[in-house]
Amino acid sequence: MPRLLSAVALAALIPALASAQERGQPSWWALLDPDVLVQRVVQAGIFALRSQFDIKYVDMNVDLRSGRVTLTDVQMWPYFEWDRTGDCTIEIPRLTLRGSDILSPEAIAVKAQAWGAYLDLACLPPPAQQSLAAAGLEGLEAPQLTMSFDYDIPSAEADVLVHADLTDLAALSMTASFTYLALDGRADMEEPQPVAYLSHAALEVEDRGGWDLARGLVPPPFANPDQAELSVTGLLGQMLASANRDAAGAAEGGADPSALSPEQRAFVDSAAAAWAEFLRSPGKLVVETGFDPQNDQWLDFVAFEEDPRAVFATLQPRVGRASVAARSALPAALVRQAISQTEPQLSADERRTVGAALITGDGAPRDLDAGVALLLPLAEAGDLGAADILSGALEHRDPETAYRWALVAAADGRFGAGARLDRLEKELPFAQILALQAEAVGNVQHPLSALQRVSGLREQALQRLSGAGQVRSYPIAALWALLGAAAGDAATADILADLDEMAAGADEAGRAAWAAAETDAAALAMEAWLGQDLPARFGGE
Prior knowledge:
The chain has helices at residues 2-22, 28-31, 34-49, 126-134, 210-214, 220-223, 225-247, 262-280, 301-306, 308-315, 324-327, 332-340, 348-360, 368-380, 384-393, 399-411, 417-425, 430-441, 454-466, 474-486, 490-504, 508-531, 534-539; strands at 54-56, 59-63, 68-77, 90-98, 107-120, 139-152, 157-166, 170-184, 193-207, 284-288, 297-298, 318-320.
């Protein structure tokens, strides 16, 4: 019976669809539009959310190519145990949800942005309601709220951002960068444990009028810049000492369990000094990790739960008026001199530093053209660091030039340069790849020492094929692979097969260029084979 009913329903649906097509309505293909399918999935998710709280919206727009879903005029009524009258209301005129680009399979990105949000005070716990109401607020307005998570699958690196602008109160930003983020399920796959190596984390709070509202609620010793430093030192010191004592409750023996560690004391001192400065000149407060970002730290969450000293020993937190990034910005005079190229001329190190800052936007406003202009002469003079930065900066703007500099950067072992070569080769014609390799290699002198053993032939072929250790050159890799294969080495024969397969997949111009290059390589290989009597040499190994 169910099958019969399904067949009847389908039979009834087909004429309706056909009639709809005749009236200019969506076709069968329109029903399978990926944007429509994604919209249905999102709508199903909203149905699921409605089982937890009430939510309405006016319109939904889906752009699958960019991974973006936009909801307009969203209204939500969450259920909180303290809101017995149901007064909590959240309004968001525009809500954007964004995932990864479907053409970037190596990245996972999740981003949510709310524009013009309004939060009723009833949505907050009673203590927060009372504090904000005492300051004269009836609700919270947020022109912008952003939450994002970016994860690179090959490297397991991740970046987290949470930002909120609160009208007439403050701007808050929390960032965290991980050099490795994964899950360890070896002990319990059902409840895997996080594995995290942190390179930097920061929390920034910028006053936008909130201090004027809260000033009257703060005890006088903490609001007086002449007394605040001592007051904050005492309060934070007592809080940390109490936490240390509680954590040591189960421990046996040892020194004073409440004593602050050096890292805790440094945090307290920095917080007290920064707060006193803030009182004299309200603005921004920053709490961030104090270790070198190049020396990432493993987050031992088990130890953190057992002993607060472990948290401070690992993160080494500091409080200041500006972030490390802000304090590390290049001096304006240095950037101006580099861009204008006025006398006296900057050193190569200074030009590399400014050029890298202009390209990355870290330390100076991003300006790719100005950065390339500074780094290009350095790279042409043999500066491998400049070459590496250039290849990364130009990968999507100028693949040909990027490939040229990636060749020398990869040969020097620069991290990521080899992978960049592989990506760029997908964009460039094979004939152009061979020409750029020949230009980068120049007048090469092949090492006669490599002819002494088959392993030497293999090593040369591998280095020239990969571009690690020597500039990548497929014709030179073929030269050494021809010799190794003739000597009966399976590994070099496999390299030769890879090169043949690569050339076979090229266009007509690429196959012609490879044929000419292979002819030259074969002639040189035969010259070495006979001139050095390699059959006799390798036959005796």
